[in-house]
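Dear U.,

For the methods section draft, I wanted the exact inputs and outputs in one place so we can describe them consistently. I've listed the two proteins in the order they'll appear in the manuscript figures. Please don't edit the token lines directly; just add comments below if something needs changing.

First protein:
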Amino acid sequence: MPTTKTVYLSNPTVTIGGVDVTQNTSAASLEIGYDSLESTTFGDTGHRFVSGLQMVNVTLTMFMNYGTGEIEATLFDQVGDGTTTLVISPAGTTESASNPEYTISNAMLASFTPIVTTVSELSQVSVSYVGGTWVRDITSP
């Protein structure tokens, strides 16, 4: 018997430091995991590892706009700040097993390019947040 698969239309929600940037975000990528710590001992016939600290990488592509509370101002406020909280869900705001919400705390945006322009094109910026810790939530609010 074939396995049933769930397919969804990508419609993520993204907040940065409490600011909803969903309407300006065109791509989001979240990588989570743990640092690998070697625990190989005498007598082992291969390398052994245990998990260390949590690892987080978030990459967002956003359409730029300028002004109070807009994308440029939001990102500018985050540069170099290692206390940023991001919240990302793949398909809307209601958490469930098929729509997990990830909260990333204490992430840092090391840099960003505030002006990216090409004649006759919408201005977009790509930013990467690193570090911090992550929590996965699948319970409805």
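Second protein (the one for the lower panel):
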Amino acid sequence: MKNNLIKLLTIDKEIRIYIVDATSILDNSTLKSIKTEFIKKLYTKLFANCCLLGGFLTENDQRLSISIRFKEPGCSVHCDIEGNGNINYMFSQQLVSFAGDFTNLVGDGATLSITRGSWLGGMFTGTVEVCYDSVDLFFSHFYSKSEQTETVFKTWRNNGILRGCMIQPLPFTDDVNMKRVMESVNSNEMYISSAEWSDIPKFVFPYARIIEQYTLKSECNCSKEMFFGMMMAVNIEDIKQAIQMNKEEELVCGICGKKYRFNRNDLETIVKIKER
């Protein structure tokens, strides 16, 4: 399998750039089973952004979990990325069948949580409110608020090709240099989203060099235990609320489509573990 996530660093060593081609991974997902165009677009945009975050993992024992809880009850997204590049991505059944629009999903009560680390080194979670009607801005807002780091996310789907770009300036970056990189990306959006993948670094980013290349994949080895681990990244208050309402949580594997239910006892066990 070809490398589909590339990390670049500008020659002045001021700005990190990540580009991803998530097309082949998406082909193995349950996207085809989604009926509405709005949810299909939401699915692909979120997936591309999650894939970009895989570039932050540098060791096999590291992992990163992304959890989005929308305002509409039961509508959630969970993604888990392992250091070896394996990615698992799930939409809740309620979100798959959702018939509203962005205004029903974002705003008061909607959250994005990202957990990053390793089992030995510890896991660290940041959570921010989801208040934008742009998926790319979900993640830019997270890093601005939770990490105090300006980070720009841009994703495109063009003729079945799904790609994304993440731009993150390092401390003390010259604003002029950041502006130049953004102008470069904005003026080459069509090329980035449709050109030969191997040509993009040299033609769009001649002012940067490749630091690392990764291979993201979606080999389905799902189990309830794996999903249990992903539920650990969910905001504890959201889980407590579900317990109070005597609601079950249902997650659908984004690769094979298998459904996993978490009843009240499961949720209470998760809360006990998180409160230790």
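Candidate sentences for the figure legend, describing the second protein: The chain has a mean pLDDT of 87. The first strand starts at residue 5 and ends at 10.

Thanks,
Y.
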